[in-house]
Amino acid sequence: MSKHGKLKIIPLGGLGEVGKNMTAYEFNNQILVVDAGIMFPRNDMLGIDYIIPDYEYLRKKADKVVGIVITHGHEDHIGAIHHVLNDLPVPVYATPLTRGLIEVKLARNNAGSKAMLNTVEAGDSVEIGAFKVEFFHICHSIPDSVGLGITTPAGFIVHMSDFKFDHTPVDGWPTDYAKLAEFSKRGVDLLLSDSTNAERPGWTPSEMVIGPAFDKVLTEAPGRVIIATFASLISRIQQVADAAARHGRKMALAGSSMVDNVKIARKLGYLDIPDEVLVPLDQALQMQDHKVVLMCTGSQGEPSSIVGRLSAGTNRQFDLKPRTRLCCLRIPSPGTRRRSVIRSTACCAAAQT
Ligand SMILES: [Zn+2]
Predict the structure, then answer these.
(1) Least CB-packed of 54, 178, 189, 332 within 10 Å?
(2) What is the pLDDT along the chain (353 residues), one digit of tens a residue?
């Protein structure tokens, strides 16, 4: 509250839940939106591909929305952007990789032609209506992630988004601690911080520990290795490519969203995968099994993903073999459509949101 008016902060998704992140900052007649993500359905939500935030509140005040700022390119932060832009055709602000992933998503949904996309970099400061937004780099499992320092007439807010204080990040780009210190000196009126797993004692190891885990799997696996992750988990894809190269295996991608995301990330220089390591899926399926790593979607058992189809025996291009090693971020709960997962050897690489 200031003498000029009252600031409302309205979480439309992502608070007390993992997924569909979307927050609205409203001051007088202006609304700034941060993120527009999806949530993946639970196993009992049959026929549902994904869940979007309920942004009816914004639809009713569409003429007051001044812009959408996106913190990073994970699905739970950009996945609903084409739906939101359809109802709220406002400017979007994102860093280069995040913008590239948004463009892929808009193109896949025939929604790209009218979008007003603006590129920002960590360190930039942009006035969006009554809000001044300072973008600062935060370390996360996808490059080009930013936190936000939001100056409003009612006070200064730090919006962290997803982050990890990882001192040895995969992309070598740690969180901008100096900027956080500067904010602290300036005086922060409100901190909105990610808290996934915050109740658990101890600390989360660096993403670097995944490298030796992959080395172990790739050394021991006698046949094909299938690694499941989110299509937007760019840093994990880099780690798999590095591991495949170290072990003389070729990497192939299954799933159009992963193929498209890797293409844009390589083009923009956020993924460093030599041409000789990455081969088309058709080619990989003709190679000897122990020379191949397949990356696919479905680490949380989403029914429409490749792993979801593999577990149901309905994937068209390839199926699991008895000696296939399947690595998931999370193994689906037992009891439902899991015949192939059960007959494979499974291992858990790491939990990640
Ligand atoms: Zn994230």
Answers:
(1) 178
(2) 566 789 999 999 988 888 899 999 999 999 999 999 999 887 788 888 889 999 999 999 999 999 999 999 999 999 999 999 999 999 999 999 999 999 999 999 988 778 899 999 999 999 999 999 999 999 998 999 999 999 999 999 999 999 988 888 888 889 999 999 999 999 999 999 987 777 888 888 888 888 888 899 899 988 999 998 888 888 889 999 999 999 999 999 998 889 999 999 999 999 999 999 999 999 999 999 999 999 988 766 666 778 878 878 888 888 888 777 776 644 333 333 333 333 233 333 333 33
The CA 232 to ligand 1 mean position distance, Å, reads 9
Q: What's the length of the chain?
A: 353
Q: In angstroms, what is the span from residue 247 Cα to ligand 1's centroid?
A: 29
d(CA 293, ligand 1 centre) in Å: 24
Q: How far is the CA of 141 from the centre of ligand 1 (A)?
A: 7
The secondary structure of 123-164 as a DSSP string is: T-EEEETTEEEEEEE---SSSS-EEEEEEETTEEEEE--S--
Asked if residue 73 lies in contact with residue 144, where contact means CB atoms within 8 angstroms, the answer is yes
What is the reported pTM? 0.85
For residues 353 and 10, what is the distance between their CA atoms, to the nearest angstrom? 22
How far does residue 347's CA lie from ligand 1's centre (Å)?
22
**Dist. CA 74 → ligand 1 center (Å):** 5
Nearest to 146 by CA among 73, 235, 38: 73
Residue 322 CA, ligand 1 centroid: distance in Å: 33
Q: How far is the CA of 23 from the centre of ligand 1 (A)?
A: 15
Q: First-to-last CA distance in the chain?
A: 33
User: 194 C-alpha to center of ligand 1: Å?
Assistant: 10
Write out the two tokens for 239: 């780690």
